[in-house]
Amino acid sequence: MLRKTIWISGIQILIVTVNFAANIVLARSMDVEDFGSYHALIAWAAAGASFGLPGMNVAITRGCLKNYDRVYWWAQKKAVVSSIGGGVLVFIGGLVLFIIEGGLTAKCGFLLLIAASIPLSGFQGIDSALIGKGEYRLSRFLALIGAVLTFVFTASMALTIKQTEWVFIGFLAAKSLTIAVGYFWVKKKLSESPPDPELEDSLMRQGWRQVGVGAFTLITSQIDRIILSIISPAVLAVYHIAILLPQRAMGSSKVLLGVVCADWGKLTEEKNLERIKKKIHVMLLGGVMGAAIIALLLTWIIPLMFGEGYRESISLGQLYCVSIIFSIPMAFYLAYEQFQHDGEFPQKLEIKRALVFLPLAAVLALFYGVWGLILVHIIVNIVTAALCLKQYNYRCKSAEIM
Question: Do residues 166 and 237 share a domain?
């Protein structure tokens, strides 16, 4: 487990570095307005990925973890068909707009680009299958390949053509090549497994139940960027740079801890809880130290790497760092709920998060703009941590762990 974690740590550092370098090149090569417009396209494309049945990822990981690989092919087929259907619907919308406006306007082109991105979301279960098979290094290598290809394609477009639409096309090309590589790896790693009606029924119910939750939360996770893209692409650019490093840190911590979480998930429910209880103080300390270190780094990284035009992003990013504090213990506990139970609690939690986030984001963004959205993230993360703590105490009491 330690060896895998060290390997993944090294690869994850490379991934974060490449992604960060890509953002630096794009921010330096494009003006603030175009850079914001590019990330508006990314946000809308991410929301459109809800057609790819994102909730199936949980069932795929759990099925592969139990050596029931056939669930991947079932879920992948459903996701691809659904994503293609979603892409066609958005394409028809763009075509209708083209006919109404009598030409290829900016709005029409925007819709057509989003339509082209949606079918790619049908393959998002590839990484989940690799993780379920214990291929953590392959999973991270795939992410590294994706990061490098995205850097090469988008940076090339930004430095030569310098148009937002072409930079996004470069992003789609990189994603397509990454999917091709990942699909080749997955086919080699999966094996035939005898039918298990009881497990298959459980996985299917969990997958379909998670689909609604996953699609809902995927859209709501992009609401902040969608709101800002409507207000002003330039404001979105400042916001993106502010939360770039903190979000990368939280995402990386979940990846690095994934090995330990999956390893603990193979234990009994009681032993899994005991491990969390024993290390909870270390998790909290790690979150506090991580938040403090990143907040300090932002003071010189943003003006040095992205330029003086993003100086407001420093204070915004430092405030956002409060969200990092509870990220590590929550990652461990939510992994416990996924691996030891049917994942119902994380699903309900995501809905509750969204129900808190949506009205707060609408109100605070309207009155306080980007500062209001940062505050919403902090409030929602504190509420989420409190709900996880309550459920954790309930699980410990049920297992008679004092």
Answer: no
